[in-house]
Amino acid sequence: MKNATPQWMAVDAMSGDYGPAPLVAGSVQAARELDAHVVLVGDEKLLQAELKRQGFEAENIRIAHASDIITMDDAPAMAVRQKRDASVNVAAKLVAQKEALGFFSPGNTGASMAAALAHMGRLPGVKRPAIATPIPREDGTATVLLDSGANVDCKSEYLVQFAIMGEVYSREIMGIINPKIGLVSNGEEDTKGNELTCDALNRLKKLPYDFVGNIEGRDLYGTGKPVHVAVCDGFVGNVILKSIEGLAKTIFSSLKKNINASAIAQGGALLMKPAFVAVKNRMDYTSYGGAPLLGVDGLCMIGHGSSNARAVFNAIRVGLEFGQRNVTERIAENIKRFG
Fold it and tell me: N or C end of the chain, less CB within 10 A?
């Protein structure tokens, strides 16, 4: 690893629900199609065997051995301290040592955050890092929701920093020239909300951004008062995120059940298949790879436990864009100026 440069992406290849196979496959795809440089972190023998099975051998994929794994059942902070050679710890250390520009992990979310904070640390001036989750909009773009789970209890100044970080992410990675920012509340009027959102509203109005004020849940999808960045505390954000996931599963499960109920419905579904596929692809989280933890010194990309090869490929793609567009540095600059 001594010859590695900050343009390498580290992948925690041991923590996914389905073992290293899809993580290696996505990394191989990125190496081939993007000419990406990837450090696979985990059991060296298993990863070498998987690379051999997938028929890949090139200098732009390396292996960093890690002898342990943090599971979903482990207490995150304690496991990060006790399992020092766990794959997520080794991946975060590579970033801290500037041997990789960022790491992706589909494992324990709390452990990913704890490892990033323990080894990489926060950017100067950042009070609390935030998870930024892209939510697909009907126009094909995405609303960045943050915080979506890192900070359950927040102060209004944290929400201001979330807006600053989200604006940079939306502009640099999502390609939105002038992102619209909204504060999640229980009504659009300035008088709505709790003590936290009312105080945050007044602070957010002072930022030199396109702040549209309070928004409601329906605005996240591009309807009503469309925004590109939606700001809230981690408690609200996580409830929103899990509700979206549950609703999406229910809708697709219900459609499948009703389609299978009759031959006529099956015939109609066959004709509608292109439309169904288009909707599914638009709503597919794997298009974004994962959710970055913004505010740490480097990139920590948090993936779903069931991340497939496409998710890993896109996580590496986004990681490379982070480096090319100096997103971490731009966040630090904007926090210093406005946060």
Answer: N
